[in-house]
Amino acid sequence: MKDFNKYLFLDNLKEDIKEEIKSGNLEDESDINLYIFEEIDRAVIYYSNCFKIMIDFNAYDFEGCKNVTELAYQVLEEFVWSEITDLTELLDEAKEETEKTILTIEEVKKQLKKDL
After folding, report:
1. Which of 13, 44, 52, 72 has the greatest CB tally within 10 Å of its CB?
2. How much is the CA Rg of the chain, to the nearest whole Å?
3. Any idea where the domains of the chain sit in the sequence?
4. Which long-range contacts (C-beta less than 8 Å, at least 24 apart) are formed by 79-84?
5. Are 6 and 40 in contact (CB under 8 A)?
6. CA distances (Å), 110 to each of 101, 107, 113, 115, in order?
7. Distance (Å, rounded) from C-alpha 25 to C-alpha 14?
8. What DSSP string describes 18-34?
9. How many CB atoms lie within 10 A of CB 54?
10. pTM value?
């Protein structure tokens, strides 16, 4: 991991969630919650990543945290939940994109039938 970028992490997280919804791996808000916590866990596995997260957030106050992993997790979790306020919106966006894809596929099928 090079430098950590919280906005890139958030954008990637949202896109990954949408893809997981489209593929049927995430079906409701509790699935999304679990997925978010797992992704934050993955982001703080290594101390080197934790330090990069701390630097990006300018987080050096260990109040309530025992170590760098807890601090990095805490600031990243707070950031994610402050930015992702409506899980239903993510579900709806993904479903809408899926419907558009299905419509496009149906349009291609119709065009192919016409061409034959």
Report:
1. 72
2. 19
3. 6-115
4. 79/6, 79/10, 80/10, 80/13, 80/36, 80/40, 83/10, 84/10, 84/13, 84/14, 84/36
5. no
6. 14, 5, 5, 9
7. 14
8. HHHHHTTS--SHHHHHH
9. 18
10. 0.77
